[in-house]
Amino acid sequence: MAKIKFKKGDTVEIITGDDRGTQAEVLKVIPSKNQVIVKGCKVVKKSIKPTEDNPKGGFNNKEMPMDISNVKKVEA
Question: Which of 27, 45, 51, 69 has its CA 20 to 30 A from that of 58?
């Protein structure tokens, strides 16, 4: 397992995928899976079932984890 070089709050740049070139903040680091969650990147739409609190249901946008090899740290 590689050493994790990122921590929550770091600014990173996405180097591969649909969000390539985007600079954003790290929200969470998952060292056991070598993944990070980056604010506003790799966003998916999750459906929400109707409940008493939310009778119409709907959709929720959620950031998904991405591999650490797909991001690089941006020097401040």
Answer: 27
Report which residue type is found at 6.
F
pTM for the complete prediction?
Answer: 0.83
Give dist(CA 39, CA 45) in Å, integer.
15
Task: Give me the domain span that covers residue 56.
Answer: 11-73
- Answer yes or no: is 3 within a domain: no
Let me know: does 25 contact 74? Beta carbons within 8 Å: no
Radius of gyration of the chain (CA): 15
Q: Is the pLDDT of residue 76 over 90?
A: no
Q: Please indicate, yes or no, if residue 23 is contained in any of the structural domains.
A: yes
CA-CA distance, 61 to 40, in Å (whole number)?
Answer: 9
Please tell me whether residue 13 adopts helix, strand or coil conformation.
strand
Could you read off the pLDDT of 42-60 as tens digits, one per residue? 999 999 999 999 899 999 9
